[in-house]
Amino acid sequence: MVFSNNLIANSNFIHNKITNTKYTVLSFLPKNLLEQFSRFMNLYFLLIACLQLNPSLTPVNPLTTWTPLIMIFSISALKEGVDDYQRFKSDQEFNERLYTVYRTGQGSKIKCQDIRVGDIVRVEQGIEIPCDMVLLRSSDLDGTCYIQTANLDGETDLKTRTAPGLTAGLSDTEVIAFDGVVHCPQPNGQIYKFDAKLESSPDSGEFSALSSKQLLLQGTFLRNTDFAYGLAVYTGNETKIGMNKREPPIKLTKIDRQIERASMIIFIIQLSLVFLNGIVGDVVQESTMKSRHTYLVAESLSQWYHYLVIPLRMLLLMSLMIPISLKVTLDICRYMYAMFINWDLKMYSGSDGGAFAANTGISEDLGQVDYIFTDKTGTLTENVMVLKKCSISGVIFGHTDDCDDLRSDDILLNLLHNGGATTADNRQTHKSEEVVDFFRCLALCNTIVPSDERANGYPIYRGSSPDEEALVKGAAEVGIVFSGKSNDIVQIDLNGFRETFQVLHTLEFSSDRKRMSVIVQEYNGNPDEGQKPLKIRLISKGADDSMLHHCAGQEEMLQATTRHLNEFAHLGLRTLVVAYKELTVDEYRAWAEEFHQANTSLEEREGRLERCFNSIENDFTLLGCTAIEDKLQDGVPETIALFRDAGIKLWMLTGDKLTTAIQIATSCNLISCAGREALIRLEGKHKSTQELHRDIDQALRHHSDAGPQQGLSSHIDATHDSTLSVVIDGSALATIMEDRNCNERFMKLCMLAHTVVCCRVTPNQKSQIVTSIKDKGFVSLSVGDGGNDVLMIQQANVGVGIRGREGLQAARAADYSITRFSHLQRLVLVHGRYSLHRTSMVALYCFYKSIYVCMIQIFYQVLCGFSGTSLLNTFSLTTYNTLFTELPILLYILDKDIEESVVFEYPPVYQSNFGRSKSSLLNNFFPWIAKAIFQAAVTTLYCVFAFWDWESSNGLGNSGRETMSAIVFTIVMLVVQLTLALETNYFTTLNHLAVWGTIGFYFAISYVISMVPALGMYHVIHKVYGEWVFWLAITTATVACLLPLYVHKYLQTQYFPKVNESLREQSLVTTSHSSELWFPLSKLYSFFKPNHTQTPTRIYQTLP
């Protein structure tokens, strides 16, 4: 319970200070280190670094591991620290705002963070609500205020909140002194639910029901209202929005899992080599080395030295096998992929803005999508609703040869305005009163708020539902104008005559009932002026499957309306059924008492209200139905056809009725003409599990040869070969999912299908469908625009939200947000494909260059008696993975295996993308290991045989190992850079500078380092740079390492080309004059694009 104006009684509640930070000044370092070392690989590198601190174990200077480890950890910690500081600044700005707060009748300006539960807060127009408050009074006499909830759900339309009857009429003085009690639930995250009641004073027994309509939520803004008083009930992080704060779900991409498996393989190889070298080293030393070189190992240390020190030295020597910089490298690459998406001007739509990547870590999954799950309304369509046609008492309007719209139907307009003078048209037998009554019900049964602004002679209507806006606007356009609303009084203008109604109750829409209703009482004049009330009526509108069976009698009209509903659905129009019910005063009073009991209940209020609503929503008199047009977005059919050619299956998950869903699916190419002929409809109405199981089995027997069996490898072929389309409604889906065997058979049927359309499905069912496909190992992408799509967006591997008229809920929950469905093709086929191609290469190259160096160290052990001595010096090992090889591979993010226009010309190339298959990175991993081992063997053997005698003959003396180290590392630097150049498809000026510039930088920095006596390379580089043998040797060694690779590359490209290689050969990459990236990098990017000669685009040959 919350006691107003009573600090002592509310002392157990928290203050209003909000905190969104992860760390404090004291906890930052230990907590951040704990988070970083919770990862296995980081813990592994820490162990290696600690072992290197022991001089008897480490073969190299500890700086070789500690330097990159500290750099990487510092970068991660700095990023976390900066992000957390930004959160702190945002919190501080909110916490220090000043509000007028009243305690025990005394008002003062205090900081937002000092507001306590039970305080009475005054909020002015345009100011953010500081905490969750029960509205007590507003500047409007009826206690109404308007709030904007864009921070919660992204909707910019205003929402109405009303003060409870106990306090709405109080004066300012009385509100400030109010000592009532709010009986409310414990803090929870249910934003749209507030089952509470307000007691006028402690133990008074006088209650007023409270719901979300009386609650002002923290984060919303007061609009169109001068001021409002509220009683603070939830504060700080216990507000509704605070309780909804969650860490975003961690999504691991398919390629991340492959990299983890590759790391484990290397770790196993590393341990095997450690033990093998330890055993071999022990045998060698015992049999030969010990007898010839007794100084190598002290006799007293032989036992523990052989069995402990040597293996540990080998482990430290080979620690570079797992690249320490891989995670940071991939993080930087992925961040840039996200920036490329944000900067893409081809996904920019004027005032709606461009694409936005909220998740910077899953771009590669965009290049591996198998299934796309899409909503319909607002995703495939514009979500701009227009009332086009209607059926009233079994007669269609707006649907003749002469007119295709209600506004051009002269018969309808004549009935509405002239009383319906008779003509030969059989529709003129229709009573004018029934037509007027139909549109009057449309104007009354809604939650629309008419604004003071006017357009075309009637107010501009604002509401959370585009359907309701279309219905009210459509009624206004034919002459029935919803002209004003003040608290619960609604005014309707009809041909210059004003009708007044009082809205007694609003039975809000729910996904279970699939309808909404209002109970109104008509007055002959203004009820505030003591005018006599007339009849009481319940008006309802909703889906046909939730309305028609509640209509009593009228069989002929029911049949005609059902027929018209099907006609509208075949035209792809959204339909709603409109009906009413006359109530006597006694019926209404009895129901109102039942409603009051349910509405003031603190337990199971929602269920009791549903039962209460259902008890009165029956025995309707059918008025007719509406048909609303929602046009397809531009480019939707072409985008779907492109995805299908790329081997991606698309499913449509919608709440619309089955016939409408089929029509829209057909018009947007989701269901092909051949698919209409092979269409399976699974409707669950009055069907048992056994009957649905039988239907599914029959379809499987008939189409079992039409497509391949389910599985990842056969999925691509199924997309092209199958013509089967499956359409299922929500009731059938619910029945199927209750039976495990039936669900498995259904999913098998879906695997065979060309496309699947699920209609009349709930948000939970959408999420279950996505989960079923995701659990089979397919990469799923969900795209939607409304709050009902959030669950499936979060459940998918990749979630895409469309910023539309239904708000930003979907966009905020998504990994990526776009403004048009057609932008999805660039997001998936261009950015996704390039990201996967680039990351696969970056990961493989990082493993390759680390294994290359480690294998040189292993081969060198043969020469040093398996003592664990390092050939490469500290400078080389410290700078190898950071200073000399990081930048060139980072700039591989600019690589393109083919021009993006080729992807649209030949979409199947999406399936042949490098890294696309389930284990492609692992399949390519072993050839890269073999490449590293070969080059390491060539480098080591060449240097040993070519320079072994040369060192002594040139008087290098004790610096012989340093000389060998310098020569080997120089060859390594040349080989790794030229290997990267070989694998690069698209050289920009930046790539040239990185690759060739790094080589030049290495020679320059080595020369400078050779001047420092303390680094062990003193004058070594100076001497070898002056020998022509050195330059000849590194040249011939590099050629020996790379020549087989270049020959293999040439033969493969010429005689066994991959699809992308063939397309690259057939096309000449041209440079666009306009930049594809957004400012500020657009000029820089276009400057560094390669300058190719512009030539006409070739026609691509058909490839196998």
Description:
There is one protein chain. This protein has 1104 residues and is α+β, with helices and mostly antiparallel strands. α11 (432-444) packs antiparallel against α12 (466-477) and α32 packs antiparallel against α33. The two termini are 72 Å apart.
Put the structure in a nutshell.
One of its GO terms (biological process) is phospholipid translocation. This protein has 1104 residues and is an alpha+beta fold.
Whole-number total of structural domains: 5
For the biggest β-sheet, the strand order reads 14-33-32-31-15-27-30-29-28
- Flag low-confidence runs: 296-301, 420-424, 706-719, 1069-1104
Globular, elongated, flat, extended or rod-shaped: what is the shape? elongated
The tally of strands reads 33
Fraction of residues in helix: 40-55%
**Count of discrete alpha- or pi-helical segments spanning 4 or more residues:** 37
Structural class: alpha+beta
How many strands, which pairing sense, and closed or not: the largest β-sheet?
9 strands, mixed
Strand content: 15-25%
Q: Write down the overall mean pLDDT.
A: 81
Distance between the termini: 72 Å
Radius of gyration equals 37 Å
What key attributes describe this structure?
1104 residues, ATPase_P-typ_P_site, 33 strands, disordered C terminus, alpha+beta, single chain, 46% helix, 5 domains, nine-stranded antiparallel β-sheet, ATPase_P-typ_TM_dom_sf, 37 helices
